[in-house]
């Protein structure tokens, strides 16, 4: 089959072996066993260079789009591999009152277009008393670090260097706009609470689950009824569940009736957990019942708690940990 320069094939054409070059516009499917490009360049429709092939069979792209993202200028060696998410063995913990250790075997970060990169052997230290990469976001608080608030920790990447970043902001789109210069990939990995003296509260997080230096939330005698408990100083925003330690004690010689109930709403809603015990006879002076319960779901860093306590009973509740959606 032959066609003059500038012509158009209206239907599919199969070329035989030995074709050295051709020009023109092809609107149908073309199968070519081999093409020899005298200039070693494939041009884009606007005439610019799109792909260059060198004598070592390397292919260099000049910023062209494809179905796995935007490929910037560079060289493809032998193959292009799709990137899948991989997150393994994440550990985030307080190292000191102003530093946090972040370790993982693998983490998957993404940029604003949701293109991913998988990083390995992450071993970082975030110093909240410093600013910039491996420190906190200076745009949020230019002075000392914030007291009585949460800092959220991110792993960030600029194409060559892996670092970490601490922010008061939890919304990813806002954090992305304040990243240190050149960093475009990020992943949220955990949070830590600064107390009133700007010291990090102790915590240890494995994967999604964290335990903390427990926070006393309720300590009441002879309490019955419903109450709404703000636990935003104990757990960060975005938690799926909360770990609670409960203590009910009795000072009544003849009756012990003390229970906690947990609901999805202040008006009651769904019962999602209860702990405690009831005994009505016998000498029970000085009895303590200690329990641990994980409550799911947690709504807006709030507990909706009901209780039944009798005369002489004491109701104590601690927040001891939480479950995030990180990996």
Would you spell out the secondary-structure blueprint of this structure?
Blueprint: E1 8-9, E2 13-14, E3 25-26, E4 30-31, E5 41-43, E6 49-53, E7 59-61, E8 64-66, E9 69-71, E10 74-76, E11 91-94, E12 99-110, E13 116-127, E14 135-136, E15 149-157, E16 162-167, H1 172-177, E17 185-194, E18 203-206, E19 209-221, E20 225-230, E21 241-250, E22 256-265, E23 268-279, E24 288-295, E25 302-309, E26 313-323
Describe this structure in words.
The chain is mainly β. Helix content is 2%, strand content 50%. An 8-stranded antiparallel β-sheet has the order 13-12-11-18-19-26-21-24, with no helix packed on it. A 4-stranded antiparallel β-sheet has the order 5-6-7-10, with no helix packed on it. Strands 14-16-15-17 form a 4-stranded mixed β-sheet. Strand 18 and strand 19 form a beta hairpin.
């Amino acid at each position: 089959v032959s066609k003059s320069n500038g012509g158009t094939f209206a239907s599919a054409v199969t070329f035989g072996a030995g074709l050295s070059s051709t020009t023109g516009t092809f609107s149908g499917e073309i199968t070519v066993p081999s093409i020899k490009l005298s200039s070693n360049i494939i041009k884009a429709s606007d005439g610019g260079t799109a792909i260059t092939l060198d004598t070592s069979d390397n292919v260099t792209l000049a910023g062209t789009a494809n179905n796995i993202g935007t490929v910037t200028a560079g060289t493809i060696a032998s193959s292009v591999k799709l990137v899948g998410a991989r997150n393994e063995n994440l550990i985030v913990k307080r190292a000191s009152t102003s530093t946090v250790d972040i370790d993982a075997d693998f983490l998957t970060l993404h940029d604003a277009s949701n293109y991913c990169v998988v990083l390995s052997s992450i071993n970082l230290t975030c110093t909240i008393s410093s600013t910039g990469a491996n420190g906190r976001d200076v745009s949020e608080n230019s002075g000392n670090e914030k007291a009585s608030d949460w800092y959220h920790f991110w792993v960030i990447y600029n194409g060559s260097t892996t670092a970490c970043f601490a922010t008061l902001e939890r919304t990813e789109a806002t954090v992305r706009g304040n990243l240190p210069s050149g960093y475009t990939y990020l992943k949220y990995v955990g949070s830590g609470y600064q107390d009133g003296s700007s010291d990090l509260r102790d915590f240890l997080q494995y994967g999604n689950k964290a335990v903390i230096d427990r926070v006393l939330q309720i300590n009441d005698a002879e309490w019955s009824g419903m109450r709404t408990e703000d636990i935003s100083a104990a757990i960060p925003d975005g938690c799926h569940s909360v770990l609670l330690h409960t203590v009910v004690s009795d000072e009544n010689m003849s009756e012990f009736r003390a229970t906690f109930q947990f609901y999805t709403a202040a008006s009651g809603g769904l019962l999602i957990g209860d702990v405690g015990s009831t005994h009505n006879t016998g000498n029970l002076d000085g009895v303590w019942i200690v329990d641990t319960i994980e409550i799911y779901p947690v709504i807006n860093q709030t507990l909706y708690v009901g209780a039944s306590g009798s005369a002489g009973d004491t109701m104590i509740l601690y927040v001891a940990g939480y479950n995030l959606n990180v990996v």
